[in-house]
Write a structure and sequence with these properties.
By secondary structure, the chain is mainly alpha-helical. About 65% of the residues lie in helices and about 0% in strands.
Length: about 190
């Protein structure tokens, strides 16, 4: 019996060697990026809506870090390189997949006094906890990067306008009386 098994093993062909990277067919970005954007959007939105444990919040923040890395630096200009073009394309697709809406719900809700968004974010994701504040900072960075790579008139820019991101960010700006002009100081006093 052992000799028969040895003969069968000798007759089975060896698995084929993987093709070198240079001979593998290139997969175009218009095939890969929608799938990546859709998967990351779904992962983030699921972790945001259902995750309340510390490990869930850490995973949610790690997903945002990954998205930020894929989007690239917010200092690149669209069209500068292949990476910038991919970032621009990924940004547009992620915006259409609902990621922009989820990020903007996180980025604006606590500052604008909205407690919870049905289907997007629950109140336990919008607390003053360190992990939730880290998520908001990552969301702000991701949204700004998406805006830089999307350009005017895009779905991302429309979402930013609709959600009131600038009002939320201005909630962190404090008027310094010494630096204010007399007109601004008078307006602040009257308010």
């Amino acid at each position: 019996p052992e000799a028969a098994q040895a003969d069968n093993a000798a007759q089975e062909p060896a698995p084929p060697e993987p093709a070198p990277a240079s001979t593998r067919p290139a997969v175009p970005p218009d095939v890969v990026l929608p799938a990546v954007a859709s998967a990351l959007s779904l992962l983030f939105r699921t972790a945001l809506y259902t995750g309340f444990r510390v490990v869930d919040k850490e995973l949610r923040n790690d997903i945002l870090v990954t998205i930020n890395l894929l989007l690239g630096s917010d200092h690149e200009q669209p069209g500068d390189s292949a990476e910038a073009r991919c970032s621009s394309w990924l940004s547009a697709v992620a915006g259409e997949e609902g990621l922009a809406g989820a990020l903007l719900a996180v980025a604006t809700s606590p500052e604008l006094g909205v407690g919870e968004h049905e289907g997007v974010a629950r109140a336990w994701a919008l607390t003053t906890d360190d992990l939730d504040y880290e998520m908001r900072q990552l969301a702000w960075r991701t949204v700004v990067t998406m805006c830089v790579h999307s350009g005017p008139g895009s779905a991302v820019m429309e979402e930013v306008s609709r959600w009131g991101l600038m009002r939320a960010l201005l909630a962190f700006v404090e008027l310094v009386p010494e630096a204010a002009t007399p007109a601004l100081s008078a307006a602040a006093t009257a308010a």
